[in-house]
Amino acid sequence: MKNTDQRHFATQAIHAGYQPRAHQGALTPPIYTSSTYAFDSVRQGGEAFQGENDHFIYARLGSPSQQLLENRLAELEQAEAALATASGMGAITAAIWSLVKPGDEIIADLSLYGCTFSFLAHGLKPFGIEVTFLNLSDPANLARHITNKTKLVYSETPSNPNMRLVDIAALADITRAYDCKLMIDNTYCTPYLQNPLTLGADLVVHSATKYLGGHGDLIAGFVAGTKPDMDHIRMFGLKDMTGAVISGFDVALLLRGIKTLHVRMDRHVENAHQVAAYLEQSKYVKNTFYPGLQTFAQRQLADRQMRQAGGMIAFELNADRAQSAAFVDALQMILCAVSLGDAETLIQHPASMTHSTYSEEELLAHLISPNLIRISVGLEHIDDIITDLDQAFESVFSGTGFSNNGLSISA
Ligand SMILES: *Cc1c(COP(=O)(O)O)cnc(C)c1O
Predict the structure, then answer these.
(1) What are phi and psi of 192, to 5 degrees?
(2) Does one domain contain both 178 and 304?
(3) pTM over cut 0.70
(4) Does ligand 1 have an atom closer than 6 angstroms to the CB of 310?
């Protein structure tokens, strides 16, 4: 894959937007901690406020550290511009507050990150913004429902926690005919595996806490799209509505993480393919949802819009809700934790954890079964990951009607 200036992703992840020469040869960019920036004169300060020069003003409006990160992220997402924030929710809320007003409608997919769902369903409603949840895996559902009132269509792909995909290009074909923006949460794929903007989306948002940071040591996010949209979100949604500004220290950690994104991601994907194959043939598993499996219902779409299948898997056990939780509890090396994209393999039970605020009916309506497990496949040795899954299955399910399935672990 080539970026606009014809360098490859791996090169841009390491070099884009930074020249050591301009920083006394420092290989690693300096961290700017300054909260405010001094002007030569009132006139220069006044011009900065009017946008007539590009002098930094105050760190909530941007800093040299943040700007370097944003230029690199824009390059990786093949966007005109990007805006970095203190969290993924900081990016999502700053963007959405900037794009809708009372009386507008947002159409969102049924399956969403829990806090995004909460923001849309409970946060925005009292402000007179209508939010409709539809199954956007079928673009016809959007075509039937969209009107001139619809100002934003929002989806993840693959979706959290159940790995459903939406066809970004097909949704963009529909929103394009309206004064309506298409916004895609690309956290699961990262820009290395999928670029929603090149498929027709107007905005892309990320939790950089996950694969981009990659080491579980920071919270950050970003939104990318056109320069006018980013300017508006920066000077309204971020500056005035959320104030969720990223610190220079987190910029440094994130730039470090991004340098190895492509290397880590290749191994996440390689391990996930093997874990998915193991789960699919296990008699304790009813369904395995992984875009890399031949049996994945949306396999053709995955091949069309994702470069690789990613590191996330969802699976349903042949078990009830309590047994599903017991399986997670029986794991020894794999950690029971939310978040994803870290070196450590992380597993969780959405019905009990990330989506536990949903009623039984809401879980069903949002396609989250009580026996669904979400796993973020880490960078440990594949044999150790599968050995742990295997011992947990045996310890929970042997003696419950299942017998040892005689599985051999790959060498
Ligand atoms: C984690 C996550 C978010 C929220 O990001 P934070 O950095 O935790 O604020 C949004 N969307 C998805 C898909 C996520 O996984």
Answers:
(1) -70, -30
(2) no
(3) yes
(4) no
